[in-house]
Structures are given as C-alpha cells and as structure tokens.
Design a protein that fits this description.
Blueprint lengths: L6 E3 L4 H11 L3 E4 L5 H6 L7 E4 L9 E4 L2 E5 L4 H6 L1 H6 L1 H7 L5 H6 L2 H6 L7 H8 L2 E5 L5 E4 L4 E3 L2 E2 L6 E8 L6 E7 L9 E10 L2 E10 L6 E2 L1 H7 L6 H13 L11 H22 L3
The structure holds flavin-adenine dinucleotide.
Length: 288
C-alpha cells in the first residue's frame, strides 16, 4: 500500500504545467485532488515517475456564467459544486450527482477536472457531462482546444487527452428554464461507485417531451450517451409503453463487466431501472 518513488513538481501556471508534462513525457501525470490517482499508485496500478500538482495554479478554481454557458474550473472540488447557488439554480443535475459521489471527505479534495479526466467508467460526472452536452477546455503546449464530452471517452482510462495536455475547464450550455432532471444511482453502500446509474435532462412542452438527453454510468468501458433512447422519448408524453421502448434501447447499448457489483445482465437491468426512475422524477420536476 505504499506508492513507488516519484518526483513532485508544483507549477504556478497552466503554461508551466503543460511544458513540464510535455517535457517529462509518459512518465509524468497531472495531480489534482489525488483521490483516484493516489489510491492507484498505492496499489501500484499507476507508477508515474513524476507528479505535476495543479493545486498551485491560480485560475483553475471557479464557477461562473459566461453568456448562455456555465463554466467550471477544473480544480473546483465536488464539495464546491454542491455549495454553488449558481449551479443549484442553473444546472441542478450537477449538484444532485455530486451529492452521491463517495463521501464528504473525498468530495472536499476530489475535483471536477480529475473526475472527468480520469477515464474511469465508474466516475459519476462523465455521464452527467454527456447528458448535459458539456465541452472540455484543454490546454497543451500549442494552441488550446475544446472537446465535447460525448467524444472524449475512448475506453477504460483512455480518453482524447494527449500527452502534455491538461483539462482546464468544463463548459456547460445552461439547460432551459423549467427543465426536468434527475440522477439515479444504485450502489451497494454509501460511498460506493455505481452498480449502474442514469442521468436524465428533459424539457416538456404541452405535456410532451420537447427534448431529452440521457447518460449512463458504469455499464460499459466508457460512460454512455443513450442518444437513441432520448430520440424515442422526444414527442411522447412519457407514457409507459414509450418509456419501456426507450429503456430497452438504453439497455441495448450497455456492456457492463461482471464484477463484485453483480453479473453483467443484472447491471444492464439495473441501468434500465435507474433510467425508468430518473425519467419519472425528471418528468415530475419539469415545469416546476
Ligand atoms: C473511497 C472513494 C470513493 C469514491 N467514490 C466515487 C464515486 O462514487 N463516484 C465518483 O465519481 N468518484 C468516486 N471516487 C473518485 C473521486 O471522485 C476522485 O476524486 C475523482 O475520480 C478524481 O478527482 P481528483 O481530483 O481526485 O483527481 P486525481 O486523483 O488527482 O487524478 C485522477 C486522474 O485524472 C488526471 N487529472 C486530474 N486532473 C486533471 C486535469 N485537470 N487535466 C488532466 N488530467 C487530470 C490525473 O492525472 C489522474 O490520471 C472515489 C474515491 C475514493 C477514494
């Protein structure tokens, strides 16, 4: 349970951090809250020779409105997401999801940037970001770039981030006023990763679904955006038959591992149950 040896670096700016990461190459890893990376180092599942700590960089911790978007700095903690009045009023789905991540101790240190950049399918925020159609702002040694969350995840612990790049912020288009939302997570005990979880955001007009977006957590090698399921629901009144069809479409794109959280078939079915519950709660909240 003791990590291997590593050198510790504490850059003062984003440009210094990306220069360090580029120069040190594959042997270096960014360090944010350390609540995924350090446990992996203790288990020797990660053995970076260099840690580049982002904690000394000003300007990566903020939550603000920018036109029609809400922008959140990568080093903003999960605890800060829960306490933000701006998020509570504009993107309440984020607060709801942050509240079921781990426990308060982890949330005091764990960051949004670390949660979404980690690439662990068990992390809760990636599917939420896909559901919200968020974009990740990336800094590298050359020009910065933006990557939609829906295109970021390529495999377990494998993302579109390239060596030497860091995620600096998450940009979320503010959902329409009166939208419905819910994050439903099945876990074995408080503080656990999801056996399966579903994020839903929808807007209703005249009793019908005007738009619906669905993200699924920990039921494949990557978080999933259930595009077809959302399309099936669009235009419906969320009647039982249409919900059943959409849930079946969502279940069909899952490919969970059989592990300590249960056999693959069970986890797929639990994704369906979480989605059914999330849709019902989102509907009840829409227009409220
Ligand atoms: C007991 C326990 C229970 C947990 N339960 C949950 C849970 O239920 N749900 C959940 O979602 N998470 C859970 N976590 C994980 C927790 O949310 C982590 O804090 C989070 O996954 C990573 O954030 P971090 O800031 O700690 O990142 P770190 O651990 O510092 O980094 C994680 C990875 O992301 C990279 N990284 C970090 N920041 C950046 C950046 N800005 N740019 C590029 N790369 C970056 C690092 O190099 C590393 O590879 C749990 C952790 C523990 C210890």
């Amino acid at each position: 349970m003791i990590p291997g040896p590593f050198a510790y670096h504490r850059p003062k700016s984003v440009s210094e951090a990306v220069s360090m990461l580029s120069d040190l190459g594959e042997d270096a890893r960014a360090l944010a809250g350390g609540h995924s990376l350090i446990p992996m180092m203790k288990l020797r599942l990660a053995t970076p020779a260099h840690l580049v700590d982002l904690a000394g960089i000003d300007g990566l911790t903020f939550i603000r409105a920018d036109g029609a978007d809400i922008v959140i700095g990568a080093m903003t903690t999960q605890h800060a997401l829960i306490g933000s009045d701006l998020l509570a009023s504009k993107v309440p789905l984020l607060r709801e999801a942050a509240l079921v991540i781990a426990d308060p101790q982890v949330r005091y240190a764990g960051t949004l940037g670390g949660n979404v950049a980690n690439g662990d399918p068990g992390n809760d925020m990636p599917a939420v970001m896909m559901c919200l159609d968020a974009t990740y702002e990336i800094a590298g040694k050359s020009a910065g770039r933006r990557i939609p969350a829906r295109k970021f995840y390529q495999g377990a612990y494998f993302t579109a981030l390239e060596a030497g790049e860091i995620l600096t912020a998450v940009r979320i288009p503010a959902p329409p006023a009166g939208h419905g939302f819910a994050y439903e997570k099945l876990k074995r005990k408080v503080g656990d990763y999801a056996t399966a979880a579903a994020a839903v955001m929808l807007s209703m007009s005249g009793g019908r679904v005007a738009a619906c977006s669905i993200g699924l957590t920990n039921v494949a090698e990557t978080p999933l955006w259930a595009e077809e399921a959302g399309s099936i629901l669009a235009g419906s009144g969320l009647d039982a038959a249409t919900v059943k069809k959409a849930v079946a479409a969502a279940e069909a794109i899952t490919a969970p591992a059989t592990d300590a959280r249960g056999p693959a078939h069970y986890r797929t079915k639990m994704a369906g149950v979480m989605l059914t519950r999330a849709l019902a709660r989102a509907k009840a909240r829409a227009g409220a």
